[in-house]
Amino acid sequence: MEIKEVFLSDSDYLKRLEYLEDSPNKLFYYGEIPKNEGDLESSSRFPLEGKGRPRTVAIVGARKMTAYGEAWAFKLAKELAEMGVIIVSGMAVGIDAAAHRGALASGGRTIAFLGTPINKIYPAENAGLFREILDKNGCVFSEIAVGEKYYPKTSFLERNRLISAISDAVIIIEADLRSGSLNTASHALEQGVPLFALPGDVSRQMSRGCNQLFNKGASAVNCVEDVLNVLFSGSVRHRRKQKIDLFGSTPDETEVLKALSCGISSGEEILDKIRKKKPNFDVSRFNMAITMLEIRGIVKREYNNQWILS
Prior knowledge:
Layout: E1 4-7, E2 26-31, H1 40-43, E3 56-60, H2 67-82, E4 86-89, H3 95-105, E5 110-113, H4 127-135, E6 139-142, H5 152-165, E7 169-172, H6 181-191, E8 195-197, H7 208-213, E9 219-220, H8 224-231, H9 251-261, H10 267-277, H11 283-295, E10 299-301, E11 307-309
Helix pairs in contact: 2-3, 5-6, 9-10
């Protein structure tokens, strides 16, 4: 299996890592690095894919997970991936593996950051998961070259800064008070990355770290919409892949629905987007299409000229 290397400046997806104070010069990897998406109508497989950098969410947590944590890691990863979000984690046993598997179960993409040299798949019991990630167009990164000396007590913690920095949001599923996942949370807070934590019973050991994060600026995640509203600025009423309908009764209605599904909510911006493809699409055509969609309950006006899928 080929080990590749990439300088951060050579990948649009990885460029944000350049802003880290201790940014790696380059990364080593297996698989395919995500690329910016093309236009929704030409390339997307999922409802909220669109032009630009793919939305990315890190889901991490305890190795000694509970059934509660496993179920939520799998559920959130699967539902986010169904919308076109890339799931990032550390490929450890426990919550990390559950998150990767949730993304894979949806047919979506997932990427992993190792805390070991790129040729040392750790833990060995996740070798099958490693292969499945690559088989399904995912990617596995490490900043540690083949044969390079590393120190497990620090390298996994150093890896965590990359997981948070590459992401548009970080979700901590389960963590005790001294969990390595809280290190990822600290990086997210320092980097200004939105941080979520799964609430848990205050008497449960593996929820103590998550509950503590609410005092440090984390938001509670109670459903996938909590995260989607941050990723897409709360401007779209998000639906699952199976339920969303991007086809209206007329071609004009279809164009409006596609623009809304990209995360655009402003009437003016919807009009501008459609005009790039259809220069003759004017205000009267937009008003007719949006009015008919509103009458049928497909879209809803929020305020002024802001619209959401209902």
